[in-house]
Structures are given as structure tokens and as C-alpha cells.
Specification:
Helix content is about 35%, strand content about 15%. It is of the alpha/beta class. The strands form 2 sheets. It has a 7-stranded parallel beta sheet, sandwiched between helices. It has a 3-stranded antiparallel beta sheet with strand order 4-8-7, covered by helices on one side.
Amino acid sequence: MKVIVTGSFDESSRMVAQRITQIITQKPAAKLGLATGGSCEGIYAHLVELYKAGQLDFSQVRTVNLDEYVGMSPDNPLSYRKYMNSNLFDHVNIDKANTYVPGGMGDPEEEIKTFRSKVREGGWADFQLLGIGVSGHIGFNEARDTLQASAHLEELDESTIRANSRYFEDESQVPRRAMTMGMGDILSAEEIMLIASGPSKVEAIRGLIMDDTVTTHNPSTFLKLHRNATVVIDRELADWVGWKG
């Protein structure tokens, strides 16, 4: 696993966007695993800029998103489908039929079957984008005694609910369940990049980059087992963590 330290969060976002651009340029029909949340907004903004500048063509790209809340309508402003449309899909020439965000409505068990099929359809992802939760969760794979390999339903931890409550009117409005790629799904991608910034991520990133420990109580540490994983953090977060590399 490689760690890259940039001068700022915006520089981190640009670096990840440039890497995604390289992948699409080299393989126009690339399959991308995508993530949501504040950590990814800058990346998508830069990708839109590159598309508008004529440097990117999404017409053959396929995407699968990491997760979605159970019971969340795709039209809800807080759904991850709405997030992806608003931040990326509506602004580039991607065919939305080639994009998949798990459906929050309907029978969750049936949607999990579809999710597992989409993760594998046409082969594993060429690239997986990740953020990181305060407990070290990636996707909605919460810190537990055990982790799941494939797409599954997950009961959200209180720390995740608290962290995500900033997007809702109050904490009681945050869904308690989500569907997420499993750890095996994530680690099957050819390349993984995780981006992080801010003081709330210090403990999770410290556990990820400061030693060789792999633990289910910080799911991000499983990236240490991947052959081509990169963690991108800014100088401020690196200093808080104590990273000298």
C-alpha cells in the first residue's frame, strides 16, 4: 500500500481525478467503483471540468456504487443516486443505463442479489474509489468482530449515524440500515485509491498507515493486503497522524 501526501485537500482531489482520467483514457470502457460523501465531491467536480475541457469521454464507462441507505428513494435529495447524478452523471456524457447505485426501495434481499450481480458483471472494477468513516469503515462495512465478503445489508453504528446526521434535519432522520459492497468486492478491484482529510479521520488513518496491523475493527486496514492500493491525504492530516513518510 502506497501513501501519498499532497499540499491540500484540493490537490488530493485533483490527483485522484487525474488518475481516473488516465484509466478512462487507457481503457474507454473502464469499470469504476464509485463512492459518495464530502471526500469525493472535489474529485467529481474536477472530472466534470476535465470532461467539459474535452479531456474525458464517459460514453463507454460503466460504474457501480459502493452503497445506499435502505428505504431511501432515488429521488430523495439525500440518496446516493441523487448525489451521483448531481455531482457527476448529469454533467458528463455517461449512459446512466451503465451506472448502478443500489436501489433503496423495494425488497432489500432481492436488491442485494442484483447488487452482487452488478459488482461482478463484466469483471471486477478496474478502479475503486474510497472515502473512510470515523471508525475506519469503507463503504458501509462497519467495524465489527467479523466482516462480510460480498454485498450485504448492514446495521449502521452509532458513530456512523452521528457522522452522517449533518446531512439530515437531525440524527433521528438518518436511516439505520444500508446495503454495501463487501470487503471482498472492494479488494477485488484492480486498483484502489482512498482519499481522506480532516481531524475526524485522524484515528482511522493512523490505524491504516502507521503500522502493519490488519483488524476488522478498522476495516480500512484490509487495504494493506491489496496489491495496488493508494492512500491520498493532505499535509495537515499527515501531520496530525504523525506520518513522516
